[in-house]
Structure formats: structure tokens, C-alpha cells
Amino acid sequence: MTIMDRKAAELWWNIPMNGIERETFSVPKEVCYYVKKSPISEWEVVTWGDIHKKRTEIIKRSVEFKRRHSQIKPCIIWVFYNNSFLMGGYYTVIKTLNREYYLNFRGRGLSGDEKSFQQKVMQIFPLCLPMPEMFENWMAMFAKKYHTPTFHRHRKIQGVAYSWCKINEYGYLEDIIIKPQSN
Asked: Which stretches of the chain are DSSP H helices?
């Protein structure tokens, strides 16, 4: 593969040839360089836009690769009471900056079963025995002990505490921890 930059193209393609009339050649502004893949092929134009597009693709791939690792993020443990006929009761939500993980509703976004995450939260904030049967009681105690009226204005019974969580490379909640270990 042969590469010829702008100045070389203007130099070589403006050399006068014996007996041949040629116009002066000037390289357009958007052209970065010329490429010839084999000795018999034509010169191909590579523009600044092509270079920018290739660099952007490389950066995107690099960012995607970096994001595909498990991360430890700060989170909020939010327990609230929903006073509704249809969906009434206590709910526990692990909130990160851009995701929510419900521990007792649908279980979406969890890498394991709901019961193990419920026990983990009960162990981090010990208010009663960490047993799945006691989770409803634990939520009521949590909302009373960590009560805050300002987190969500429309919820009268709610509690908020801060913690850390481990999110795996696919965006699923993997673990809830008290404080990340420093290396």
C-alpha cells in the first residue's frame, strides 16, 4: 500500500511532461491524503471526514470495552409504602444514578434471586433477623428508622439510606456492599 500526502500529490502531479499540456493540480481542502493499494490500482482519496469517522469508531469501541466491566457505584436504598388498593404495600428499591432495581417487585435487573438480595440488605442494615419471612417487617422498621419526608414528596411513609452496589458488565445488580474496599 502506497500513501501520498497532499503536498507530494501537488508536487508530483504538477511536474510538466514533455509534449503534454496539463492544468495545474491543487488538492481540495477536504482531502487528507491519497492511497494506492497495489501498483496497478488507482489512487483513492482519503478525506478528513473519513479519518474523523474512523477515530470516532475506535473511541466508541474503547468506551464500550471499558464499560463492559463490573463497576462499584454509590446507591440509595429506598423503602416506601404504597397506599393503593391494587399495588399496596412496602417496596424496596436500589437506586443508582440511572437505574432502579426492585427487590420485591418483578426482580428485573438482578443477577440472582430476590431473596438473596433481600437478605443482603437486611444484613447491611440490621433491624431484625435476616430471614426472607421477616422482610416485610424489616421494610416497616427501615422506613421508620431512616424516615425522610423530602426524598419523594408524595410518599409519607418512606426511608432512605446510602450504600454501594456492584453492577456487572451487563448492567445487572450483582451485590450490595456497605463501603467499597480501597486497594
From this structure: 6-12, 48-67, 114-124, 135-145
Angle between helices 135-145 and 114-124 (to 10 degrees): 40
- Position 103 scores a pLDDT of 86
Neighbours of 117 (CB within 10 A): 24
pLDDT tens-digit map of 140-182: 999 999 998 888 777 888 999 999 999 888 888 888 888 766 5
Residue with cell 421477616: 134
pLDDT exceeds 60 at position 183: no
7, three cell numbers: 503536498
pTM for the complete prediction? 0.60
Comparing CA positions, the residue from 180, 172, 179 lying closest to residue 96 is: 172
Grid cell in block for residue 177: 456492599
For the chain, the farthest-separated pair of C-alpha atoms sits apart, in whole angstroms, at: 99
Q: C-alpha distances in angstroms, 27 versus 10, 39, 49, 58?
A: 7, 22, 15, 27
d(CA 64, CA 68): 6
Contact call for residues 176 and 163 (beta carbons, < 8 A):
yes
Nearest of 134, 136, 124, 139 to residue 75 by alpha carbon: 124
